[in-house]
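Hello forum,

I keep getting stuck at the same step: I have a sequence, I want structure tokens, and every attempt I make locally crashes halfway through. Rather than fight my setup again tonight, could one of you with a working pipeline run this one for me? It's a single chain of 219 residues.
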Amino acid sequence: MSTPTTVRPLPALGPNRRLSVPKQAERTLGNGLTVIAVRRPAVPLVELRLWMPFGRAHLARGAMLAQTVLAGTEAHSATEIAAELQKVGGGLSAGVDPDRLMLSGAALVTGLDRVLELLAEVLTGATYPGDWVQTERDRLVDRIQVAQSQPSHLARTALLKRVYGRHPYAVQTPEPEQVRAVRPAALRRLHAERVHPAGAVLVLVGDVQPERALDAAER
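Reply #2:
Ran it on my machine without issues. Output:
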């Protein structure tokens, strides 16, 4: 014979806690870039996220641009950029989705100016050197081929096609042969056409004074 279950009353709700919103500031620069700075002083770091409207670029070229946008400028090679970022405890990475090019990174607060300088240098002067593009092209082809053999990737591909049908969102991974056809000149043209500050948003979060961080971004 089963024992009756005792129903216990729920504890009373406590008072609502006051929401503490971090101090923040926002500014749209003359070139159209919107910068948002948020103060979070828990650790002496600053995180940055740059979202840039990218449109529906050729899938393979867009993926390759994200792979190689940090591959060097006229002033610094990819290795030198990485070394400069490491000096301020930082790093940068890039990615792309069907709508946006995204660059993200972090650094010590004392290195914010330097990280922003290097970010600006990459955005305005990425060179897409041929040897680096070839290396990253081969790596991306390998990753795509491995992914295409995985059940999880096949399931995601089938789901996207079911959800989006013939919409461009249905295909978010280029075919290997499309990637193999991408050349540095095509990446430079795509960069010139699509990498612009108008409509982009840069977010800085960390142990910063928001207005000073906006001034640093504007410089």
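Residues 130-147 form the longest helix (18 residues). If your local run keeps crashing, start a new thread with the error log.
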